[in-house]
Amino acid sequence: MSRTVLEKIWDDHVLARRGEDEYLLYVDRHLTHEVTSPIAFEGLRARGRRVRRPDLTFALMDHNVPTVDRALSVRDEHSREQMRALARNAMEFSITLFDYFSPWQGIVHVVGPELGLTLPGITIVCGDSHTSTHGALGALAFGIGTSEGEHVFATQTVWLRKPRQMEVVLEGRFQGYATPKDAILYVIRELGTGGMIGHATEFRGEAVKSVGVEERMTLCNMAIEGGARTAIVEPDDKVYRYLEGAPYAPSGEDWEEAKRYWDTLKTDGGARFDRSYRLNVSKLEPQITWGTNPAMCIGVSESVPDPKEVEDQTQRRMVERALSYMGLKPGQRIEGTPIDAVFIGSCTNARLSDLVMVARLVKGRKVSPDVRAMIVPGSMLVKRRAERMGLHRIFMESGFEWRNSGCSMCIAMNEDRLGPGERGVLTSNRNFENRAGPGSRVHLASPLTAAASALEGKIADPRNFDLVSLDELELEWVSPWVERNILEPLRGG
Amino acid sequence: MPEPVRRVFGKAAPLEMDDVDTDQIIPAQFLKVLTRKGLGKYLFYRWRYDENGRPREGFILDRPEFRDSVILVAGRNFGIGSSRENAVWALMDFGIKCVIASSFGDIFYGNSVKNGLLCIRLDDETVRRLRVEASKGNLTLDIDVESEMIRLPSGEVLRFRLEPNVKSWLLEGLDEIEATFRDHGEKIREYEAKMKSFKIPRRAVLPTE
Ligand code: SF4
Q: Is ipTM over 0.90?
């Protein structure tokens, strides 16, 4: 029978079934962070249970961590306590921890792939909704709650309802200034925040094949904002090259065996999808959100909606409420709206390829004096690689702050935030009310649109700026890994 | 381990909104906790309190006629967004025992079941009608999990449907970890015995790149 890539991995991990559609899956990798884990560990302790497979479990700190100098103490008492609790729990339950001071620390969805903890064909869970990101490497990855996390700690298994299958086919090629971030924003705008509820989304098509692994992560990351249960891309050579030699990736005979298995992880020709959505990305314009959920989105040259033109009553009230929260006038053009801050970061868009794109736009230009602009690399490894390449100098000369890694302004659990009423263009994935701090006004966009807005001091169309070529960046150092996985895909290879 | 949930009886409050995300149910700053108790005071915090922590006027659950509500009637896509189980804990700590909506965020729904918060899906039209009724301030619903029925004061009965395993879960409130080991422990050991070695992370010596 024809199966999708997701179904193949699913079938390889099902141990049992209960009721109509709940299945017990073995978990090959359990990632955990400081925010959603303490109560799960507490539950284990209360009943004298242990972590069944500490060798398959990895913990790290990302949500609470300050992004300023690591030598300074963590000022927020509650953050500090949560970080300490994770350190204690990791020690007690013998779990590898990438803590605040580790050179491998970073956002869980950036660190997993770059260290080779994420592999094609394995199941991954994490107490974090954006776990779908790992699907970009061909893993079956699910965000879970804290009670489920406790169950995984104890049993190394998880009960899941089998998601329905959806395909999002991106046809054509990304041109110029349109990026995968713009594509996924557009898809969510079309399908709504609940459009993919109950579904696992497979991203397919020429546009998906043609971009690098990191850009596929952006797609899978944000599928969650369309309600998807998870997302996946068929693994291919690009994924193998991304992982080869990574610290935790298999090596030697294991690597060869793994590749033989991974080669079977393709969606069969006759596989059936419950839903299908197609988009040709070649004429896509850069997208930006105007409202308080990711579906409230328009092209950067368009105008925000006018509630008078919305027929459905509940919808109209939501548009009114969003406009008033965001401080925008009905029907106004979005471009040119003055901003206070720009944040380039998060598990959506803070990988090396994102930073290279930003450098291509900002090199030799200056951030507007009215704007606080910060770049928060997705991991400390991303940061080190960027610094070896000399990207940080380009950013700092332009007037960006160059920070240490963490979730930062994406969730504002540390000190990086927007003040009440402040407006920011962020490369993260959620623009909910108060997300970046109480009263914050968040516009989601691609790194290029965010960078252009930082330069102009207002929401800007990146097409107004010429990009310098990769050669003109005059990178100081490029490793073979960077050449293969970052520069080659950006050259369109 | 949740208590069994057989019946929910009490006042319903309407929440006239679609797409209520878990960031709104409980903001991130209240995720910095090490216990699940006492989160009710932060429920819908930004809608109930201003930037300086002073109560705002008029949020539905703070109005005298709704303060003792145990049922929340929302709209579409309730509980989308973050996986934070704190959203469920906050609702329950506040006293909410059941949420009625036309659809739920997947992770929120799963979290609710594990904690014994009853989530009922009804069609858009019925949910809207219940909200209108509830907004009058005296809609008392009698919800029976076993028979999957909601009884309205008028005597009208609405039927809903729970997946059988969700239902038995609610009715029995069992220790899932123990149940998994009891029923499937052998399967878990079998998988582990046959697990391909490439799936097990090598013990990495992290390079200095
Ligand atoms: S960067 Fe934002 S979305 Fe990603 S894991 Fe951190 S808080 Fe969640």
A: yes
